[in-house]
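Cont'd.
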Amino acid sequence: MRQAVRRLGGQAVRTALALLAAYPPNRLSAQDSQFSVRGLGVPGRWESVRARTTGGAFGPFDPRSSVADVSLTDALQLTATAAEATTYRRAEIGGSRDDLRSSRFPFMGLAGPLSRRFVVGGGFATYLDRTYSIVTRDSQMLRGAYAPYTDRIGSDGAVADLRFAAGARFRSWLAIGAGAHVLSGSSRQTAQRIYDDTTFLGTTQTAVVRYDGFGISGSVALDPVPAVRIVGYARSDDRLRTRLGDTETDRTDLPTTLGAAVRWSPSPSARVAGTVMWRSWSDAGGFNTTSWSAGAEVGAGPTPLRFGVRGGQLPFGPGTVAPTELGVTLGTGKGFSGNRALVDLGLERLVRTGGGLTETAWTVLVGLTIRP
Amino acid sequence: MRRAALTAALTAVAALTAATACTEDVTAPGHCPDFCPSGSINGVDTVLQTVVQRDSAFRGFVQPHEASSLLAATLPGVIDSRAIFRTLPIGDSLVVESGTTTMGEIVGVDSLTLALTITRRDTSAHNLTLVYYRLPLGIDSTTTFGGLAGSWTDSLRSLNVDSVYALAGHVDPLRGDSVFVDTTTHYVTVIAKLDSAMAPFVPADSGKVAFGVRVVADSRASVALGSVESGLGPRITWYAEVDSVGKDTVPRPASTSDQFDSFVFNLVSPAVDTTLDSTLAVGGMPVARSIMRFALPRAIRDSVQISRATLVLVTARPPEGVPADSFTLAAHGVLADFGAKSPLSPDASRVATTRVHIGIARGDTVRIEMTDILRSWQIDTLAPTTLALRQVPEGTEFPEIRFEPSTNTGLAPALHVTYVRRFPFGKP
């Protein structure tokens, strides 16, 4: 039986590896938002479903997440994880309301120890989401009469963060991690005009815009007492280069990220954590952002209960004040076959406001982790 | 047990993922400028006044004897056109009895029926009448209206098409005439009976005969008769008397079609003068075409998406005729620009048409929507940006229209184009 389970686990890992290698980055978007229309887009979340259902507070401590590389040191066996998120959004502005929906695979990761103290990992996560579709109505004086038309400008894609990272535990109370990040992605952009008068033919222009960049990250974890862990992490991304064919159309500096987090485990069946992160998005022409989160995981064994709250700012939006977001999360998990297979489920409620736009979203999260 | 649990879990996750994954709707109304992309779609509407830089007209693409219609018209003050044709011989003898090969010499004829097909007529012209003339057998492609002046003096007979059609069964039992209308094509077949005095059998000619047909009506008359080129040419049936090998004579029919057909015309009005000048002539007879060469701005050819393109032509000389003479004007792309001998493109997307109606006045504009042609020029950058203005089909209508040429500043052919500039992709 054990051999059968191992065989099945091995198949799952191979499937996950194949997905990691082959899945197109433009499906990796974290969550679409109307706030991604202007600027570079909406930053993604580098969290597994487990960490995300704690409001993201457990992200720097979760070996399945890619927030802090040092968390890899807790991956004591080969682990493959993937997440799927389906979001139902409502955008309200100026008295109008639009209901939108989308499904994404925002996160995939793989980690495993090379030795008892040294763990390597990698995977994809969303760095910037660039998915939207905007429809506007207007008219133009053509041949002596106003010709009404509908414009549709859309972008479907994302900038993915391909991470290669390692973590090492030097002492029982000290561990460090470092990573390299290749930013790569594309968005299929469309500009379409359809005239009401069909004697004017509609026009559709499409282009695949490609993005690339590079970043490095480092983190350290301290356990001053066995029940408490403190993590500090930093990341620096150089620039995002935008290319249309062989032509560079834009080059934008990317932010520096600084974060800190603390986790307290008062008992084996209860953990609470909080984190704060600052990013210098003004380097990219946006607002510097500060994000925070707090969450807890209660219950030992294979079916814990997770919940959390998060808040912060978005880097791009109209006006002089950064848009804000606030979210609450709830989730659980279930282990199978001696925790070789983990299924995490979560629900997230998110509210984003800024520039007169209020965007609310329900997101259903499904995560799958395999430990062969 | 564990394996079953793992399988169940993976199945449940796959089902949940599949149930929620196949959903996508990210389209929302834009609230500009705050929540719209920085770039916008820029539409432009402009008239290119000097886009046609070289043009010329050529005549002779279809001669009367090559036309798919025999044009007969009596338009007082404009034109007088008559159909002419010569039939094939039937020989000097016919089979005496069906099923045998015994031949008997033709010793006389009882009568002859002549069938003509009217492929186009003006339904507002009442009492449409065909007038038949006997012509000399020597008619050919060089025959002119004036050259047959002597033959037009005495007609054999006339046939009122409307009157015969009004009779029971559309048959005139007294004169042996009949009229049939094809309910699908609306072609009118007119069968006239000519007796032996009108159409005597001349053994020396082996039954070859030549006729001319004139058309008249209460008002201006203009019809098109089917020609041999269209497969609807004149057909005759001889009802001959054959020597039954010294015993008696028997009546035998023998049908034949025409060997040559054409039409001759007398230009009464200078408005239908066939002499070419600097204007852009289209249609008429012999058929004229005009070649127009476009010098499109590079930006339009390379960098924009065209929503609509309209060729605007100013009438320099309007066509004359009856309303039924209205015709289709085509702007036809060419495969190569060899002037008058430019081969026309077989690609349907490189043909744009419009209808030119009789009654258009000098100075009126004729517009041809040629969006597809311009789009094809954008796709195939090696294609010559040359158009042939022509009548479709050629040689089936008499009227000729002429347009102002590119050398006439202010009235030159223009291109009204509506397009969208290239979107600034790749900008945040």
